[in-house]
Amino acid sequence: MNSLKHLYRRLKGYTIWLYVDRAKWHQGEEVDLFIHTHVRLRLKYLPGYQPSLNIEERIWRQVRYDLTTNHWFESLDAIWETVDKIVHSWSPKKIKQLCQLT
């Protein structure tokens, strides 16, 4: 819920369309209440079992391939530091390609 609140505040003045999968944390009474009380936010659910429509899946697949193939990490913190480093090194062009926006 904190993510929705943050997004809503950050994009003040905009109508926000979120396309999400049907994971439990994207559904439920708390999400429904938030959507109904924050009129600029629209939530649309992707069809079930369609990871190719979910942009985050494309990005996560690339991160996993780039970072975890033949790598061993000492700790969870080491993984997150590496993920953060590689994602911030990507150019806008690469991100658009991963999201199939170009």
Percent strand: 5-15%
Radius of gyration: 16 Å
Largest β sheet strand count, sense and barrel closure = 2 strands, parallel
Query: How many individual domains?
Result: 2
Strand order of the largest sheet: 1-2
Q: Mean pLDDT across all residues, rounded?
A: 86
Shape: globular
End-to-end separation in angstroms reads: 31 Å
Category by helix and strand content: mainly alpha
Give the proportion of residues in helices.
40-55%
**Helix/strand order, N-terminal first:** HEHEHHH
Number of helices: 5
Unreliably modeled segments: none
Give an account of the 3D structure.
By secondary structure, the chain is mostly helical. The chain has two domains: 2-49, no CATH class; 54-98, no CATH class. It is 52% helix and 10% strand. The chain is built from five helices and two strands, in the order αβαβααα. The chain has helices at 2-10, 29-37, 55-68, 76-89, 92-98; strands spanning 16-20, 41-45. Strands 1-2 form a two-stranded parallel sheet. Helix 2 (29-37) links the parallel strand 1 (16-20) and strand 2 (41-45). It is globular. The model has no long low-confidence stretch (mean pLDDT 86).
